Amino acid sequence: QVSTAYEVPTVADQAALGATARPDTLYSRFGSPTVRDFEAAVADLEGAEAALASASGMAAITSLVFGLCSAGDHVVASRQIFSVTYAVLAMHLPRFGIDVSLVDGTDAEAIAAAVKPGRTQLILVETPANPALSLVDLEALAAIKGPIKVVDNTFATPVGQRPLEHGVDLVLHSATKGIAGHNDALIGVVAGSTDLIDAIWAWHGAMGAQASPFDAWNALRGIRTLPVRVARQAETALRLAELLEGHDAVESVSYPFLPSHPQHDLARRQMDNGGTVVAFEVAGGAAGAMALSERSRLGRIALSLGGPETLLTHPATFAARLLPSERAEIGITDGLIRMSVGLEHPDDLAADLLQALDSLG
Asked: What is the pTM assigned to this prediction?
């Protein structure tokens, strides 16, 4: 239902809705029937009690952090994380008196060691991490006592891995990406226990982070094809990763189901597929990466991922506002390309990738 206001029979009915947690027929800033349907679908996919949809993936992250943390609290986060999330953690949370420790997400002992008993409220990680596809050991993360453990599952989607099954507390997505899957919905979502979701909603509703009904409707449509889309894209992604490894113009390739990935065994243990994104570094640094992106005939230069079209992103350009040392911390090199593999025929994508690589000389 695309509506902002809902009629009720009596004033008493309106008062009752106003006293209800997360009402869906009071005022759409608090929730709406279509958004609630999307939340229920994601909760089912992730095996969660409840879910909360937001206007974007970043709205989901900021609602979660400010819904659960206060001045004086401490957050531990993996430094291999989306550049905008990194900016929120490193630049903005300290302004509100929330301390942040950024650690190597591939080192479970480092994550645990960074926890400050009695102060650390959250541990936030992303796996596979954007953009270089490093992984976090979910079972080791879940074993850490005390803080609320949160996993950004955007790259894997619920059909690639289910962090809650490994014992973490909350899972979140920029559902704009693989879940919605058609590059036409801007929406985020967090899922977990009802108690935690209600606590996040208390801030989420006040700051106006609610997803629109229209975006929720589009995202629900995307869920209908999610398993078949991801299966096709992941199969093609592995094939392209193998092709890239054999080309002289490519200096390194990262894809979780590629045997050369340093955490390949972990990927096989906790993921059902390798995902739809391949990260690779081309010779020639930024100039080489830009040239390949612009010479691709099928891959389109765009910032998003998870849609039906193959998209190419040069992360160093997008994250130019970060210091070189900060870019290095999150795995962004000058020659890195993030390729979101689409639904085009695998043979066509392979041929296009080869002609672009060969053109680099």
From this structure: 0.93
